[in-house]
Design brief:
Helix content is 77%, strand content 3%. The radius of gyration is 18 Å and the shape is globular. Helix 3 runs antiparallel to helix 4. By secondary structure, the protein is mainly α. It starts with a helix and ends with a helix.
């Protein structure tokens, strides 16, 4: 009886670690691909930002310039395991902003590709994007909440 409980705990720990490391490197991959895609082809993302009419043009250009760099820096920090907890917290905030924007764009009726991954991956603003960004946010939240236990 005790031996079976121990095996169950060990199996659970392995699944938890598997989920943690899969989520950890998945987040890094998403950030890396997204950042590189926006650098290679910034136009789709800039067109999406242009849909937000109340943002001054300078702010839209600043966001289109800074965001890919932020994504790449976060990806490198995650892969390099540098300041893991704070990096993952920033990543969770970033994914939360992506979720909020996708929700806003969907409700506002934006009819465009978000340019989230340049022209690499088509990503129409809509409920599919809302769900995707919600899942990214949840994965990041779970990973950041398990940093101490897994490292």
């Amino acid at each position: 009886m005790i031996e079976n409980s121990y095996k169950h705990i060990v199996a659970n720990l392995s699944l938890n670690k598997l989920f943690y490391y899969t989520g950890y490197y998945f987040i890094a991959a998403v950030l890396f691909v997204s950042g590189v895609s926006k650098i290679i082809d910034p136009q789709p993302f800039l067109e999406t930002l242009n849909l937000i009419k109340y943002l001054p043009e300078e702010v839209r250009i600043a966001i289109a310039t800074a965001l890919p760099m932020i994504e790449l820096v976060l990806a490198v920090l995650i892969i390099g395991k540098i300041k893991v907890k704070i990096t993952l917290l920033h990543t969770t905030v970033l994914f939360s902003a992506f979720f909020a924007f996708s929700l806003y764009g969907t409700i506002a009726g934006f009819n465009a590709d978000c340019g989230c991954f340049g022209n690499t991956v088509k990503s129409e603003i809509g409920w599919g994007m809302v769900v995707r960004n919600f899942l990214f946010m949840i994965i990041a939240t779970i990973v950041v909440s398990n940093v101490k236990r897994q490292t």
